[in-house]
Amino acid sequence: MTAAFEEKPPHAPQPQNVVVRDIEDGDIDHVVALWHEAGLYRPWNDPLKDIAFARRDPHATVLVALDREAIVATAMVGEDGHRGWVYYVATDPGRRGEGLGRLIMQAAEDWLLRRGVWKMHLLVREGNSAVIDFYEHLGFRDGKVVCMQKVIARTGSEE
Fold this sequence. Notes:
Aminopeptidase, globular
């Protein structure tokens, strides 16, 4: 366990027979559908472009967790040579509470550790207290930073 994560509570369920791997071509439509179901879709972020960008960059990937053939969780993970970042963390809404979120986050952490990254970051939309509680349970803390952004390429649907 790294310093960024606390020990798992003993009562936490452990997903059985779930395999985590990098996304493949045949997964893309299912991943996008899961992101919609999980409420992650935003019209200004084209998920197909985000997936394609992560797949062509050796410093990023999209991880999928499969229970048999069904995609039940995802996380986009990448590193910039300094820190790791996690995006698009989603679990099948009908399977919440089974430990899939913790499983995919551990897979993202492991992916970063294999690349020598020692600290991971993620962004949570303001007011999303349930998700903040989940990440705090995994050992994440408010970094006391302000995230600023600037749109540098117009696509017509920016937030």
